[in-house]
């Protein structure tokens, strides 16, 4: 089974790209993908302007085919009514592999949060653009380390925050 973080937002201890295990003298290539509805990750070929719930469903389908979660689906402890963006880093198998039941359990529990009848998730485009920009920034920062460890930080657009959007060094 693949490694999955025990605590929300914690990296599961993936090796840095320089420390990728070697097999028979060759580098073992790992195939990581970023699935996101965050426009700051729009460079990812798996960026889709969909609801966070739809994003979770898409990744769940991949887990059924052997994909493994790299970050927790409810990282940052944001609830659906608080955060319109969700980004998941997934390790894709070379071929259909066995199901990682730990990852499947995590994604199913995340979907249960989104499916709670008392909770209405906020969708991208429903909030004031300045507030949405802040949420996009927070989502990006919460997954930045996972992206870096998987060699995917190039998908995250760098943004400058203005005084109105956050703290600036003087």
In short:
This protein is α+β, with helices and mostly antiparallel strands. It has helices spanning 52-64, 101-115, 129-149, and strands at 22-23, 26-27, 31-36, 68-69, 87-92.
- Roughly how many Å is the radius of gyration? 16 Å
Count of structural domains: 1
On the 0 to 100 scale, the average pLDDT is 78
- The percent range for strand residues is 5-15%
Q: Outline the biggest β-sheet.
A: 3 strands, antiparallel
* Strands in their spatial order, largest beta sheet: 3-5-4
Shape: globular
Task: Provide the helix percentage.
Answer: 25-40%
What's the total count of β strands?
5
Poorly predicted parts: 1-28, 160-170
Total helices: the number is 3
- Based on the structure, what is the oligomeric state of the protein chains? single chain
Computed structural class: alpha+beta
Give the distance, in angstroms, between the N- and C-terminal Cα atoms: 48 Å
Q: What is the H/E order?
A: EEEHEEHH
Helix/strand layout:
Elements: E1 22-23, E2 26-27, E3 31-36, H1 52-64, E4 68-69, E5 87-92, H2 101-115, H3 129-149
Antiparallel strand pairs: 1-2, 3-5, 4-5
Helix pairs in contact: 1-2
């Amino acid at each position: 089974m693949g490694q999955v973080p025990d605590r929300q937002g914690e990296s599961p201890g993936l090796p840095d790209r320089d420390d990728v295990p070697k097999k028979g003298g060759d580098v073992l290539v790992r195939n990581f993908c970023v699935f996101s509805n965050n426009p700051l990750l729009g460079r990812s070929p798996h960026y889709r302007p969909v609801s966070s719930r739809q994003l979770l469903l898409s990744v769940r389908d991949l887990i059924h085919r052997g994909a493994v979660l790299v970050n927790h689906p409810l990282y940052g402890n944001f609830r659906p009514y608080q955060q319109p963006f969700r980004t998941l880093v997934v390790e894709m198998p070379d071929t259909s592999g066995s199901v990682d039941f730990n990852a499947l359990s995590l994604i199913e529990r995340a979907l249960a949060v989104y499916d709670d009848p008392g909770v209405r998730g906020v969708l991208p485009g429903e909030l004031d653009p300045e507030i949405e920009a802040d949420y996009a920034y927070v989502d990006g920062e919460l997954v930045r380390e996972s992206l870096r460890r998987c060699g995917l930080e190039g998908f995250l657009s760098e943004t400058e925050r203005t005084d109105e959007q956050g703290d600036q060094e003087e």
